[in-house]
Design goal:
By secondary structure, the protein is of the alpha/beta class. The protein is built from ten helices and ten strands. An eight-stranded mixed sheet has the order 2-3-5-4-7-8-9-10, sandwiched between helices.
């Protein structure tokens, strides 16, 4: 596996992102000795309840910069890793290096290395596809879940025209404009310096294999390699009785309506104050991060561990 690492100077003076870097190494592939370095933000008291924030495609932990101070200000530990292929984490150079199962395995290895327990998961986009698998497969590590513009597809449902267009675009566009893609996923226009920050992890096209292939890894047919594991995860989630909150935006064409199904199918979602955040698109952490963070803090306060 040819592994790329973005130079540190790409991340100097990013707006609102002055967090100290932390790193963990995990196995790169099944049965091999090669290692991948995963970067993560770790702010707040080390012994406080952990809030794990998982980003999606094609963003990185920069997406959570508005939320981290709100979470830590309320007394919690804020953790925001960069998925492999994104942010300051290592980037395998070939699209074939990435599979759905590897993404789950990489993040599980990271979580085990930190021995995280009592976790509140906050997840969006691919953060949900990975995070909900972790919740289903390792329920002993999690206390509650907040899903924001995310779902767990099994390949048994149509993914919609908007997603199909995005998948084809990511696969075929000659130069994949990561920052502009995040901008187009918002209902407001992002400042140039913010767009540039989303581009920062990718010095050139060779670093973008993970970003390009991510949409193609979403299960889209019942025969998809990830479909059985996701069906098994759903079987576990449909027995999940710990608190499970949805906080979707009102302007996301990709996940619109998925919150209803999560609320209906997961027992822990019953009777909770599910939220619709107004005036945000797919990347609601970018546009309404403080508001979403306050939803998370209020949710934690409802049943804070004694």
């Amino acid at each position: 596996m040819n592994i790329l690492r973005t130079p540190d100077e790409r991340f100097i003076d990013l707006p609102g992102y002055s967090f100290a870097p932390h790193y963990v190494e995990v196995p790169a592939a099944e049965g091999g000795e090669q290692r991948l370095r995963i970067h993560y933000v770790d702010e707040g008291p080390g012994d406080a309840e952990p809030v794990l924030m998982l980003h999606g495609e094609p963003s990185w932990s920069f997406l959570y910069r508005h939320m981290i101070p709100v979470i830590t200000g309320a007394g919690y530990r804020a953790l925001a890793p960069d998925l492999v292929g994104f942010g300051k984490s290592d980037k395998p150079a070939e699209q074939s290096d990435y599979t759905y199962q590897r993404h789950v395995d990489w993040m599980n290895a990271w979580m085990e290395a930190l021995d995280l327990r009592g976790v509140t998961l906050v997840c969006q986009d691919w953060g949900s596809l990975i995070g909900l698998r972790l919740v289903a497969e390792h329920p002993e590590r999690f206390e509650r879940v907040v899903v924001a513009n995310g779902f767990l597809p099994t390949g048994d449902q149509l993914l919609g025209k908007a997603f199909e267009r995005w998948r084809e675009y990511a696969r075929t566009v000659p130069v994949f404009p990561v920052g502009q893609s995040v901008d187009k996923g918002c209902v407001s226009d992002l400042p140039p310096e913010v767009i540039a920050a989303y581009d920062a992890p990718f010095p050139d096209e060779s670093y973008k294999a993970g970003a390009r292939v991510f949409p193609a890894l979403v299960p889209s047919t019942p025969e998809d390699p990830a479909a059985p594991a996701n069906r098994a995860a759903w079987a576990a989630l449909m027995q999940w009785e710990k608190p499970f909150l949805t906080a979707f935006s009102d302007g996301d064409p990709i996940t619109r309506g998925a919150d209803y199904f999560l609320q209906q199918l997961i027992p822990g979602a019953k009777g909770l104050p599910h939220t619709t955040i107004r005036g945000a698109g797919h990347f609601l952490q970018e546009e309404k991060g403080v508001e979403l963070a306050q939803v998370v803090v209020d949710f934690l306060g409802m049943n804070r561990r004694q």
